[in-house]
Amino acid sequence: MRLDITTVVVSPFEQNCRIVKDLDSGSGVIVDPGDEAERILEAVAASGARITHVLATHAHLDHVGAAAEVRRALGAPFCLHRGDLPLLKALPEHGEMFGMRGLEVPPVDIDLADVREIPLGAGRIQVLHTPGHTPGGCTFLFDGDGFFGDSLFRLSVGRTDLGGDAKVYARTLSDIILGLPDSTLVRSGHGPDTTIGRERRENPFLNGTYRLV
Predict the structure, then answer these.
(1) Distance, CA of 36 to CA of 39 (rounded, Å)
(2) Domain count, the chain
(3) Do 142 and 182 form a contact (C-beta atoms < 8 A)?
């Protein structure tokens, strides 16, 4: 796939919402519409992408806070792993706690627990279940381009005290994330991009310097 990727940094948490457009077909997806729906929709219009799916790596408020409005405006199905439904249902309450009031719980149209791939143009987006940061966390692979949400950061990993499980996370890191090719581009939910190879060498949670459990 030939991709055009637009990043819109949204919310007080500076979360990376991505608009991913397949240049050959013009179809696209949104990954993690966390806040500021109007800005996201403006970026979609500017990209010219025809949005077919709204994807969530997980259900923390800074990744799904604008999902309901974006889904409604674009008429595209919202996709989330059912392991994160309790977090999703608590979205309004969590929003109140962090000063993001009036958040709306979007209906889940596609349960990612039942999906291995999502079509994009003539290609496919691979859906990997990567739990630990949250129970239903997922990573989306577009060939060698990965959208990891908060499962992996440049030189760090996600926290586990907001619905996560450190033991599960440790297995995800060792068995799934470190099983990806070094060339895999890591697009994180916050902060700069990196690669699996660089994180394998330098990330203290992946190279054995620190342990989650």
Answers:
(1) 6
(2) 1
(3) no
Q: Are 135 and 125 in contact (CB under 8 A)?
A: no
In order of 23, 154, 161, 183, the CA distances from 179 in angstroms are 29, 17, 25, 12
Maximum pairwise Cα distance, the chain: 46
Task: Give the DSSP letter string of 72-124.
Answer: HHHT--EEE-GGGHHHHHTHHHHHHHTT-TT--PPP-SEEGGG-SEEEETTEE
Domain that holds residue 54: 3-202
User: Is 208 part of a structural domain of the chain?
Assistant: no
What's the token pair of residue 126? Answer: 């691979």
Q: What is the pTM of this model?
A: 0.96
* DSSP-assigned letter for residue 153: B
For residue 71, what is the domain's CATH number? 3.60.15.10
- Please write the tens of the pLDDT for every residue from 84-131: 999 999 999 998 888 888 899 999 999 999 999 999 999 999 999 999
